[in-house]
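Contributing new complexes? Match this layout with CO-5-methoxybenzimidazolylcobamide.
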Amino acid sequence: MALIDEIRQAVIDGQAKVVVPKVEQALSEGLAPDKILHEGLISAMSEVGRMFEEGEYFVPEMLIAARAMAAALDLLKPHLVEQGVEPIGKVAIGTVKGDLHDIGKSLVAMMLEGAGFEIMDLGVDVAPEKFVSALNDGAQIVAMSALLTTTMPNMKATIAAIEQAGLRDRTKILIGGAPVTEAYANEIGADGYAPDASSAVRKARALIGAA
Ligand code: B1M
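Output block (do not edit by hand):
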């Protein structure tokens, strides 16, 4: 089995102790971090999602796979994030209220950081007021992630809270996450939607006129 497939399989099996040395080996053999990310880790999580949908995996297996992926992401981070870049803008990022999925959000945060944004990572299950208070602390962009159809409405609730606080005019709002679409972004009045972490960077740059 090729090393990249071994990494993918070890994430699916939730074997963090196997994934970490294999990612180290892949990096030392010169495999591109981007390839490890997409073909190894992200592809593994899609498979885990499929197995969950089909009843082969349950929440504990999903969680263990997510931990293995997070351990691998820690290793990849320095390779994906360029150090010492002058900040081009400040982004408050979080997964919306009620939603505990953090891998995609953290990946987007990492890529934005790598592109020179200063990141305020608010974590998961972030209430609308917390996004508002980050804006009061100087964020220009609010970046919201949602992985559940049931938590997507909290993006709209957050936009309403930002409007109510009188901060909508000076705020750019970017949304994303597996169930989120461009049409939904338009419907709730967000300024941008991105389907993945690299397009989130392009969108964020465009939103603040740094494209
Ligand atoms: Co959950 N889960 N989960 N889960 N989970 C999904 C999302 C699901 C699709 C699985 C399935 O049924 N196939 C399903 C949602 C169904 C739906 O609503 N349509 C689901 C469910 C149902 C649940 C629970 C309700 C299960 C239960 O308890 N019965 C529960 C909810 C808990 C809660 O949040 N309140 C739950 C729990 C969990 C775990 C805790 C076990 C774990 C998360 C651990 C963690 O994050 N630390 C988990 C996992 C791992 C998944 C899957 C398998 C993988 C998610 C992931 O990390 N993907 C997921 C299935 C799937 O996605 N195929 C699933 C990898 C990640 C890199 O991709 O997050 O999509 P993603 O991010 C991408 C893009 O979406 C985009 O860029 C990223 C990189 O390219 N993106 C943005 C994300 N945010 C963005 C923001 C942007 C722009 C782009 O701008 C701001």
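Reviewers usually confirm one structural detail per submission. For this one: The radius of gyration is 17 Å.
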